[in-house]
């Protein structure tokens, strides 16, 4: 057994120093981290060449030897190398979770045999799926590198592709194939899609798991009908229901290419490594923006450059009917123009300087929400409703779904109406969408309102219904992403065009952060936009804190004397990053066991969703008894007041309410370094900000802040002053009320 500063390892076969014939040789062994470390992948380096390996083979013997407390240790590896005659020195390297490759063992061999190069398999040609994913990435890259040629962009991407996509195909008695992730794939909120089929020739597969970093195995859904496979495998009944799908979390700090491993669990409880598939991933941020400079000429040049770069790297493209059809679809989407204004919904020809806001509140206001849940956007609307009601406006709240906030809206005098806009969203074409909009207008009359306020761009249908009734519309947009990337293919092109047209149709579009505005208000499509920041009711929070002492809140949450409490407040979902945060907690617990032993973690915002279930299973598999998920509740302020540190682990935000609430409560804050948050708090001045999804950076930040509480408290004191001076409701809500008055009176124009 070899030992380094960070690992133990052993090359089991072939023995170091042995004589080997030239050609392909498979090195097999294991490597295991020292306490606090974590190892992700293995490769070999020989004569300037890199040979990727398969790491993560389950080893029960090593689990027992190292006392992991688990049935197996994912520690075995195999690396295929090509040896040429003469002395050979192979350097084995391991990828640490921090994202760096480090050598852990060097082995020498005496290679004999004929002096000829070992055969190397040519990379497989790209099918339509991989071809179009790569081309789409190239077309989008032009926005980031406008001066780069298509040839240089394509050459660079081709060089980053893994030479071999499938390092391990399912070994007998398993049969299967992976479709996702593709060779080039986007990572949305730190997660990669996993799709394919797998079955055992004689047994039922009990569970199927996936992992990109070997920290935790994430469950996949197995059993999707795959009737198309039956003619190919008539002797295996399991082939008919062998489809799998799901997502796997990928820490942001891991370098390309990413190795995705699949593990099949058989009825006897044994775990089998059945697939290792590699992908070159990029962040979803690239796909939020429209294509730059879309034209037939650019599409043709990009495609020609992509084909040439693949050919020069020894690859090809399978030019079949599927590929032709996929390229046509991509070309159509690439060349799709911005939707023209629809009928009378066109904006003014020119957008002049801003007029003075009218302070007079409208008599009757209709507020439209996508739901009434305990979420940031509906709570934003609730605060606005209370303010408008206090000014004398009569309110009606129209929501697409029920929720816990109905009584609170009713308490401020609002009539609450629930409608079903589902037929608009599911409309297959423009005529059906317009018919669904007309039906909504007949079910609910927007005509009596002096102003309609639509909140979030999922209420685009209300913008059209209000304009059809001749009513002015103030449209609040909180989503830091484009409509096309938000909806994907869930909307027909006609409905997506309606959603985009709503932005142009609104009399004013208000954004609470400049980061969000930049996704929507562009030179190609200027909006009647205004930047009005989010707010927090500091006075109400102070009154609550005075009536609810911190000690009582800690006792209510079961925090014992001497314990530390970290809270993460927000609806449990992929965008909020709780899964990556949980993995960071596990790393922190391993690396700082004494500090972790007196720290509790609470995630507030649990629901009954598939993501909640996956998060629960991940927490259980990681063995985190001091971390709990609490269901969402209106009594959330205690989770800030009781905490020694609160976190916001989101991948995407506009002006997150949880950050403003933590600032108001004077609670030290650790949050994601994303634009919507950095406009509220400045890194190192009012909060600690780290990259979203970077699990090692989050673990280090947790250790640093929990070990030195005065540091966080100093930042929190400055954050409290900043929120009082910039985001207090007494300062900001009058600006929103003035905007409401200006739009209802027809006095609003674009702010330049």
Structural class: alpha/beta
Binned, the helix content reads 25-40%
Q: Which band does the percent of strand residues land in?
A: 25-35%
- The mean pLDDT is 92
Distance between the termini: 68 Å
Q: In CATH's first tier, which class of the largest domain applies?
A: Mainly Beta
Low-confidence stretches: 340-358
User: What CATH architecture label of the largest domain applies?
Assistant: Sandwich
Question: Major sheet, described briefly?
Answer: 9 strands, mixed
Strand sequence of the main sheet, in spatial order? 1-2-4-7-6-5-8-9-3
DSSP strand tally: 31
CATH fold-level assignment of the largest domain: Immunoglobulin-like
Discrete helix count: 25
Shape designation:
globular
Number of domains: 4
From the alpha carbons, calculate the radius of gyration and give it in angstroms.
29 Å
